[in-house]
C-alpha cells in the first residue's frame, strides 16, 4: 500500500468497527506481485540504511516519537474503532509506543561489538544490520507491536516491509504517514520503509517465504507461526506466539492483590492479550474466599462502546472470535465446569466470565483470547506447578505468595519465558526481554533484545607480525 514512497490506494478490504459492525474504512488488498516488488525495493535500499549514521537513525526515531505524541488522540480513536480497544487502554498503548520509539533511538547509538583477547592479533566484533526485515503483526496491539518491530529495525539500519493485521490496520497506516513525513524531511529515500496491506495468507506468506527477506519478525497465532517456521528457508525468524498463562495463588498471599491482578489481567482488551491470565490455580484453603472477591470485582465491569471513557471492556475483534469464545464456554460447562458469572453475549460483546473447573477441563490448556477466566483448586505448590507446566504453551506465568522460598522454587521450575512474582502474567515493560518457550515462540523481543535479533555479528581479526 506504501511502496517505494508511493501510496497504492484501492477500496478492496472493509475495515469494520467490531462494536457496531459499521465499515469505517476500505483498504488495499496488495497482491503477491506487489509484495514481491515491495521486497525488491527494500533490497535496493539496503545500502542507504546500512550507511545511515547512528545519529540519523536516532533522529528518525526521536522525530517519530514526537510525531506519534502529537497525534495521540487520533491514534487512540483509531485503536477504539478498528481494534475495539477502550480509550483508556488505547492511551496506554500509545504511550508505550512512544516509549518504545525513544528506547530504540537510544539503542541506535548503543550498537556495539566487543574485543577478544588474542596474542599479536586484534580480534573485534561489530554489529551489522541483517538487511531486509519483514514484520508481520497481529490485531490486538496494532500500534505498539508494530513499533516493537519497526523501531529496532530502524535503530539497527535495516530496511522494512511491514504487514499489519487486516483486522486492525488503521494505526499502522497513520504511523506510515508519519514515517513518510519524517523520512522526507530528513531526505532519506522512502523505499527504506514499505507497508503492505491485504490478506495475510497471500502477502504475509510472500514476506515469510521470499528469499530476499533476511529476517521475519512475526507476532501472532501459533498456527501461522508454525507455518512461517516451516517455510522460511534460510532466513532468521523471531516468533512471538500465543499462550495459556497460569496464575498460581498460594494460601499465604495477599488475596486482595491477587484477585485484583487476576481481574485486571483477564479483562484487559477483552482477554485478547497474549499474556492474559489463562488459568487461575488457587490453593484450596482460600478458594471460596478468592471466588467471592473475584465476583465482587467483576460485577463493576462496564462493558460497551470502546469510544466511551467509562468503558472497561469492548467487543472481541470479530463476530467469529465471539462465536469461538462462546463455544469454548459451552464446551467447558459440558465438561463439568460451573459457570460462576458471565457467559452472556450481545453481538461481539461477551460479559466477563468466570468458570470453576476441574483440572482435566479443556479450558485449562487452550488460548481462549476472550474474557473467560477458568479457575481451579490446587492442594499445594507442587500441584500448582504440575498444572501450570502441563500443555504446550510457555509464555509468562504469575505467582502470588509471600514466601520467598516458594517464589524462588516456582521461578526456577516454571517452564515459561517469564515468571512474575506477586503479579499476573500480563506484566510487561517495554525494555525487558519478552518471549516464550515451547509453542509460545522463538527469540526475544523488548527493544534491546530485538536489536540483538535484528543484527548479525561480524568478526574482524587483524593479524600483526610485529614482535612486541
Ligand atoms: P494471526 O491470525 O496469526 O495473524 C497475525 C498476522 O499474521 C496478521 O498480520 C495476519 O494477517 C498474518 N497472517 C495470516 N496468515 C498468514 C500466513 N499464512 N503467512 C504469514 N502471515 C499470515 O493472529 P491474530 O489473530 O492477529 O492475533 C492473535 C494471536 O497473536 C494470538 O494467538 C496471540 O496470543 C498472539 N499474540 C502474541 C503476542 C506475543 O508477543 N507473544 C502478542 C500479541 C498477540 P491478516 O490479519 O491480514 O490475515
Q: Pick out the low-confidence regions.
A: none
- Strand count: 22
* Cα Rg: 23 Å
In the CATH classification, which architecture of the largest domain applies? 3-Layer(aba) Sandwich
Please report which band the strand proportion falls in: under 5%, 5-15%, 15-25%, 25-35%, 35-45% or over 45%.
15-25%
Would you give the CATH topology of the largest domain? Answer: Aldehyde Dehydrogenase, Chain A, domain 1
Query: Which structural class best describes the helix and strand composition?
Result: alpha/beta
Highest-level CATH class of the largest domain:
Alpha Beta
First-last Cα distance = 61 Å
Say which CATH homologous superfamily of the largest domain is assigned.
Answer: Aldehyde Dehydrogenase, Chain A, domain 1
The description of the largest β-sheet is: 7 strands, mixed
**What's the total helix number?**
15
Bound molecules: NADP nicotinamide-adenine-dinucleotide phosphate
Please list the strands of the largest sheet in the order they lie side by side. Answer: 14-17-18-13-12-19-20
Overall mean pLDDT stands at 97
Question: How would you describe the overall organization of this protein?
Answer:
Helix 6 packs across helix 15. With 468 residues, this protein is α/β, with parallel strands linked by helices. The strands form 6 sheets. Strands 14-17-18-13-12-19-20 form a 7-stranded mixed beta sheet, sandwiched between helices. It has a 6-stranded mixed beta sheet with strand order 9-8-7-10-11-21, sandwiched between helices. The longest helix has 24 residues, at 87-110. It contains 15 helices and 22 strands. Strand 3 (13-16) and strand 4 form a beta hairpin. Helices cover 40% and strands 21% of the residues. The chain has helices at 32-44, 46-51, 54-70, 72-83, 87-110, 144-155, 170-185, 200-209, 222-231, 255-267, 287-299, 319-334, 381-389, 404-413, 447-453; strands spanning 2-3, 6-7, 13-16, 23-27, 115-116, 121-129, 132-136, 159-163, 193-195, 215-219, 236-240, 245-249, 277-283, 338-341, 345-346, 349-350, 353-356, 372-378, 396-400, 418-421, 441-442, 455-463. The protein has 2 domains: 2-241 and 440-460, Aldehyde Dehydrogenase, Chain A, domain 1 (3-Layer(aba) Sandwich), CATH 3.40.605; 245-421, Aldehyde Dehydrogenase, Chain A, domain 2 (3-Layer(aba) Sandwich), CATH 3.40.309. The mean pLDDT is 97. The site of NADP nicotinamide-adenine-dinucleotide phosphate has 32 residues, from helix 8 and helix 9.
